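Researcher: Structure for this, please.
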Amino acid sequence: MKILAIESSCDETAAAVVEDGKTVLSSVIATQIDEHKLYGGVVPEIASRRHCENITGVVAEAIEKAGISLSDIDAVAVTNAPGLIGALLVGVNYAKGLALSLGKPLIAVHHIKGHIAANYITHKELYPPYLCLVASGGHSHIVKVNSYTELETVGKTTDDAAGEAFDKAARAMGFPYPGGVHIDKAAKLGDSTKYKLPKPATKNEFDFSFSGLKTAVMNLINNSRQKGEEVDMNSVAACFQETITDILSDKFIAAANALGYKKIALAGGVAANSALRTKIADKAKENGMDFYVPELSLCGDNAAMIGCQAYYEYQAGNVADMSLNAYATKKLHML
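Model: Predicted structure, token format:
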């Protein structure tokens, strides 16, 4: 089964052709990073306009690179939630029009489910049930993956997502958007014990809170400058990364142990962080757990992961109709 998948939830216009869930025939991404870098973050209105400009060309390129024609497509899939509403609407409406014109099934995919599904492309031997940590610019979730389509949230952020905290802290350090990759590089040159940063508490032991940590970094930098003290940004980056990856990995492994999981996975844009990948891999080994993480190219937003998840949604009978809408927020258990 060949699925044409479309992803436009934030600032990446992406399309891919995926066969039988795990074989990627093509994957094309048009990024807007250079433009949004001027503003220190994603500007929703600009993102939506660029999706309008890019989507037709991106889809055409994905079809061409797959070596097929549109008539060879068996279904059209699209991210319909969560994300920037204007950006999502571009992808959803394009996918609806394409599915209608081709007379093919339309499949809606939850963005977080897509990130988790990226693991199935890299690790074809992976199958549910398992526990997954999803860490990205907009999400920080610990998720029970009960089946390919049935997921249950165990813990989530109560304020900022991990990726959002990375970007905001990086901006305070003077690094350009997106900040995560710059913090990762700078941290390798710094001393992770030089500055003391807090680990915010949460009412639910498996929830996350990163707003206080982000604020602590900003206060550290501002207070030092006001006193005329030199700030070692590489060490600030190292301390911040050490703290946030400790929080993510410690709570994730604790949840896995408490719930009896011996199979765990990591997904989302922050899954590309070298320290987080290493820490979870090490802790998984210490606890006798099998650990899965997507290859770096599949950690960020892409359409291949949407096509992968769409295959399982279709197998489960989850097919949309022309009333499909986009939603800025949507719980994982809702279709």
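Researcher: Any notable elements?
Model: Residues 103 and 274 are 44 Å apart (CA to CA). The chain is about 45% helix and 20% strand.
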